[in-house]
Amino acid sequence: MRYTVSTIAGVTMAVMMLLGYSYQAGTQETGPKLAYINSAQIIENTPGSIEAQATFEREMATWQTEVQVLADSLQQLLTQYEQQQVLLSPEKREERQQEILVKRQEYNRRVEGLQTAAQTRQAELVQPIYDKISAVLADIRDEQNYAMIFDVAAGALIAADTTLDITSQVIDRLAVAAQAANPN
Description:
Layout: H1 5-18, E1 23-24, E2 27-28, E3 34-37, H2 39-45, H3 49-84, H4 90-144, E4 148-151, H5 167-181
Parallel strand pairs: 3-4
Antiparallel strand pairs: 1-2
Helix pairs in contact: 2-5, 3-4
């Protein structure tokens, strides 16, 4: 297949448009406007995040206590069995092994249930914070015409010009929004 200059120019223009570049009369203007944030720093400084973390840790402490009680009970059962197994009849030994198996299964089910509950609860607590951050990022991206905003905390950004860092701008807007929501 033969490619003509107009075909190549058309493909190039389509690719450049997909990448956010503008194409005018054979010359290329500046590329897309980029910025980056540090989401860990933003989350740490977002109003309500410390309270959400404290609530989660408080609730987790209760669940961890429950898991520890179950683990201790299972360990006690195992220890008793190990100490008494040589004295037990084959039937009693089988009965105790079955009892341990049932207790271990109960423990595993409860731990899995608590892990699921913890993940759900953490999502409930942090989702409103993530929603606020996402809204502020979308507003900034729209207002300042950013093609992309990267997250340095995600580890994908190796090096960047610090003037492209809009983390403090996001934090400031979140603080203003929190003050507007709670004028006390």
